[in-house]
Amino acid sequence: MDDWKAAIGKGMVPGALASVASAAVLALCSRKESGHVFAGTNAISHWLWGDKALRKNAPTWKYTLVGYGIHHASSLMWASLFEQAAATVLARKSVGTTLTASAAATAVACFVDYQLTPRRLRPGFEERVSRGSLALVYTAFGLGLAAGALINHRKDRA
User: Fold this and answer.
1) What are the backbone angles phi and psi of residue 41, rounded to the nearest 5°?
2) In a domain, 61, yes or no
3) Residue 82 lies in a domain
4) Residue 112 CB neighbour total at 10 angstroms
5) Residues with Cβ within 8 Å of residue 105, at least 6 apart in sequence
6) Angle of helix 131-155 relative to helix 12-34, nearest 10 degrees?
7) What pLDDT digit, counting tens, does each position of 12-52 carry?
């Protein structure tokens, strides 16, 4: 897929599913580990509000909505890159190859998030949940990418 406009369009469904799935798992892990459902999502807003966001627990427009907005936009970006980079593989419409491609894309996203990105622009929820929970959040993200890609490319048959 050489057309970035098409890749961005194709990234909407996988990005939305990856965003919702990973945010749901983040909420569950945040609740379990910090006692606060919104702690992880609030932490994402540290991009704008600094380290104060890393300590916010209650749902607020300022921290929760901004945190989820950043998370959702990032998910859409990664999904669009995924659709562009893996277009040939995804066109095969194979569950196995789609899961493999989404796992690879998720691994790249995690590597970029934590190895190449300055601390100030990292997701932030790593400050509120364990490494095991991070793995679950990224796994949910990858499954959302795969589900969205399968939906997208199933529609290509029609």
Assistant:
1) -65, -40
2) no
3) yes
4) 12
5) 78, 81, 82, 85, 86, 142, 145
6) 160
7) 999 999 999 999 999 999 999 999 999 999 999 999 999 99
